[in-house]
Structure formats: structure tokens, C-alpha cells
Amino acid sequence: MIKVLLSLDLIDSEDKRDEFYELLRDENWFKTNDVDTVWTLNFPNRDPENDEDYKGVRDRIANVLIKAATDLKLKKIYYVAQLGNHEFIARQISKVDGQYKCTRRSLYPE
User: Fold this and answer.
1) Which SS3 state, helix, strand or coil, does residue 82 take?
2) Which top CATH class is 2-104?
């Protein structure tokens, strides 16, 4: 099983927050109590030692957020995630050449 802890921020899209949360819940994401914009996900059939399974989980997160950004016409999503025991990842979902894409971003301030 691969467990994921994910924190995200909607940028200039606060009016879409409730719809966004509903979309994530529909994808079986679970919002944590008392901590804003932190979610958990479980992938019970994925092996944390298998690189392809890790990449599949990483890509699934990006695809769900790209779909949400596209459907809700969000400005931008920043997120960081811990996937099992792998390194943290930091990404953003934003429009690039007219399409929403997932790109890497710095985890720490420069």
C-alpha cells in the first residue's frame, strides 16, 4: 500500500473551493480535520518498493488535479505531497500554452 499526505493551495480561485473539495471527495480523497487543505489518499494495491507503482500514484494525483483545474477553470493549484517513504514532491497545476499541465516547483523558498 502507498499512503499519501498532500497539502494544496488554490491560487485566485477561492470561489471554487467547495466544488473543488467535492471533486476530490468523489475521487476518494479524505480531508483532514482542523488543518486547512490537507488531504490523505490510500492506494492499497500499489507496492511502495515498485518504481512504476510510485510513478503511477504520482501521475494519478497530477491527473486528478489537472481534471479539477480544467473542469472548474481554476487559476492555479500549488501542492506538496509525501508518497510513502519517497522524497517530498512539489508541483503546480497551471495553464501552459492554453492547456492545464503539472510542472515541478521548488519545495523551499529560494
Assistant:
1) strand
2) alpha beta
